[in-house]
Amino acid sequence: MISSSYSLTEIQRRIDEVKRFLSITLSIANAHTVAFYTHDVWNRFMAVPPQEVLSIVSSCSDQQREPEHKAKEQSRTTFGFCNDTNRLVDTRELLQAAKAHSLPGLGVCMSRDELLQALRESREEIGAQLEPDEFMNSKKSHEVQSMSEVVACLAQRCGVKQVIDVGSGKGYLSSFLSLQYGLRVYGIDSSTTNTHGAQERNRKLKKFSRVYQKHRKAVKAQGEATHSPQEELVEIKLGMNGDDDVLYGDGAGVVSQEEEKLLIGLSDVNPAVESHSEPNPETEELFLSALSVDVIQTTSPRVPSSQLSGEERERRKRENLERKAQNRTDVTSTVFSPLTSYVTAETELRELINELEDAVMVGLHTCGDLAPSTLRMFVAKPELAAVCSVGCCYHLLSEEFDPAGQECLRGVCGFPLSQCLRDRSWFCGRNARMSACLIQMESLFYRAVLHVILRDHYSSFKSEKRVGNVYSKAKSFVDYVRRALRRLELDESKLSDSDIQDYHDTYRPRMGEIHAFNMLKVALAPCIEGLILLDRLCYLKEQEDLSFSALVQLFDPLLSPRCYAVVGLKSYEDRISC
Fold first, then answer.
1. Which residues of 53-76 are buried (b: 16+ CB within 10 A; e: fewer)?
2. Structural contact between residues 549 and 537, judged by C-beta atoms closer than 8 angstroms
3. Is-contact 204 263, C-beta < 8 A?
4. Rounded Cα distance, 71 and 345, in Å
5. Potential cystine with 432: which of 29, 339, 427, 554 (Cβ 3.0-4.6 Å)?
6. Which stretches of 121-243 are DSSP H helices?
7. What is the pTM of this model?
8. Which residues contact 109 (CB under 8 A, 6 or more apart)?
9. What is the pLDDT of residue 343?
10. Residues 6+ away with beta carbon under 8 Å from 209
């Protein structure tokens, strides 16, 4: 049995610490940048100049707070806020407190290596052959490779061979789990476009994987380690672009340049790889000789169908069908099956998946409420032995106790999950959950000044109406405002270009306020994310039939900022009794 690092009581204590910090500071995170100037946000919350905030933000990681200064301010401030006015008077104290109340500062997370070591114990390590960076970008490759090894270890630990990938999207993780680790993966996504695309991508990837792995194995056995990756890919392409009936009998056709770049993931594809010229017979013969004999089907020279006898046509048709059936049999245990469905905790998985056995449930960057729904499904379904969930898009979470929040689907909200926070009717607010989004400073400035223009000249306009992505197309502030007014269906003839430019020039000297304020919101973002993830961990620890639950840092945060996974395992005895 794997021992959990922290008890329910300890996690609840950490939640109380973060909650106390956010109860003082959440007003900054919830301040809407759009109304920054119209609501005089800076002067409402700040008693320090923006230049001081920016200077301290840029230098606080290199400087230590002086003890006597801390003692001096301690009596009249809480986390840098004046106890009397509730305005920020000590930026450095706020930033240090924010760091202490983030997940790294709280010290509640396991590392990926620690989790793998605990899962494996004396078990045999799972080997690796397929390199994901051959067909994914570096970020996705890092995520898929890091998470798939954890999922495979969870499956091995639980003695299961099936995985359910919720919100599987384009199927990168699902495909890799099936091809790399021999797991039967069901990828569920609500988008038909995603599932159809994942199916096609998986079919081509499966072909690539078979040829790639057999070729690498043969090259290693022959001691020919002098091939560069590009040279190997040229040879693999030659094999993939050969006669499908000869190699596979699946009628997949030639891989296009665009598909090849997707599969291989090279930013600068070798010209030889892109070439569709006739293959070199000697190179093709060398490549084919590297394949095991059982996948090479010899055929007679091509003869036009019109010249064949009826008996010969039937024979060839029968042989093709037999080859296809054999290929399906060969990959049955390692197939990825994309499914289109909207899932909730009430979804009956056995109705969706006829062949379902005990399985591991996973989700890689599942948006909004889908991440907590994944955890609810894990708890509710006895056939789910383990879970590994990495969430994202916290701004799309529904909050049960937010008076200004959206209605929860079927009365079930994404936050809070734990009884600990539900008992306190806690909510963060949408603006606070959005605070981790890094937006260009000029874009925020443009939007805030536009809001002043709307207030001054369009009194009947409702501020909650969205402008959309206008900034990226605008050539200047005047152009931005013109585009925004057209998008909002407002009369732009009320304002001349010089009128619009005057607004820009008036507020330009105060742009530093928005910049500094946003930096403070970014500093608070890890604390808000931490509370959401601690709530999910606490929810799992509140369940009686779990043998293990933890927060695990799966990814390098520089490559993948949403880097934390919620991992849980059910007790074996409880699963058997169910």
1. beebbeebeeeeeeeeeeeebeee
2. yes
3. yes
4. 50
5. 29
6. 138-158, 172-181, 192-222, 229-240
7. 0.73
8. 103, 550, 551, 552, 553, 564
9. 73
10. 130, 179
Q: What is the mean pLDDT of residues 107-129?
A: 78
Picking from 553, 469, 516, 539, the residue whose alpha carbon sits closest to that of residue 41 is 516
Local structure of 337: helix, strand or coil: strand
Q: How far apart are CA 390 and CA 531, in angstroms?
A: 15
Least confident of 73-77, 264-268, 359-363: 264-268
75-80, long-range: CB < 8 A, 24+ apart: 78/24, 79/21, 79/24, 79/25
d(CA 401, CA 30): 15
- The DSSP 8-state label assigned to residue 556 in this structure reads -
**Residue 31 CB neighbour total at 10 angstroms:** 22
The one-letter code for the residue type at 115 is L
The single-letter DSSP state of residue 65 is P
- In this prediction, residue 404 carries a pLDDT of 81
If pLDDT is split at 50, 70 and 90, which confidence band does 382 have? very high
CA dist list (Å): 135 to 127, 147, 265, 270: 19, 17, 4, 14
For residues 537 and 306, give the distance between their C-alpha atoms in angstroms, rounded to a whole number.
67
At 377, list the tokens: 């499904």
Q: Which of 411, 359, 366 is nearest to 183 (CA)?
A: 359
Phi, psi of 203 (to 5 degrees): -65, -45
Q: Report how far apart, in Å, the C-alpha atoms of 498 and of each of 445, 456, 479, 501, 503 are.
A: 18, 16, 12, 5, 9
pLDDT in tens, 22-50: 999 999 999 988 899 999 999 999 999 99
The mean pLDDT of the chain is: 77
Q: List CB contacts of 107: < 8 A, sequence separation 6 or more.
A: none
Q: How far apart are CA 263 and CA 202, in angstroms?
A: 10
What is the C-alpha to C-alpha distance for residues 406 and 546, in angstroms, rounded to an integer?
Answer: 32
Using 50, 70 and 90 to split pLDDT, how confident is the model at 264?
Answer: very low
- The overall longest dimension of the chain from CA atoms, in Å, is 100
Residues in the chain: 578
Residue 342 contacts residue 145 (beta carbons within 8 Å): no
CA distance 317 to 426: 66
- For the cut 70, the answer to whether the pLDDT of residue 255 exceeds it is no
Q: Alpha-carbon distance 548 to 564, whole Å?
A: 16
Give the side-chain half-sphere CA count within 13 A for 151.
Answer: 34
